[in-house]
Design goal:
This protein is mostly beta strands. Helices cover 0% and strands 38% of the residues.
Length: 71
């Protein structure tokens, strides 16, 4: 579930809210920005980051990328 859809949930005070942060590949190539955090409510953990692809990635308009969140 998207974190923004659950007002009863939030990012822990000891963690960073990474929404809006830039994402780059290991080689420094811009990948996009974190749009949303996808949460496994049962585990109470962020499982995926939903990204807005960088403009030069040739993604279709409105397309989102989901990458695993590793902790």
């Amino acid at each position: 579930v998207r974190l923004s859809e659950r007002p009863d949930l939030g990012v822990a005070a000891t963690d960073h809210d990474v929404r809006g942060w830039p994402v780059v590949a290991a080689d420094g190539t811009p990948v996009g920005h974190v749009r949303e955090l996808l949460v496994d409510v049962g585990l109470g953990r962020v499982r995926y980051l939903e990204l807005d692809p960088a403009a030069d990635r040739h993604a279709a308009p409105g397309r989102r990328l989901h990458v695993p969140a590793l902790a």
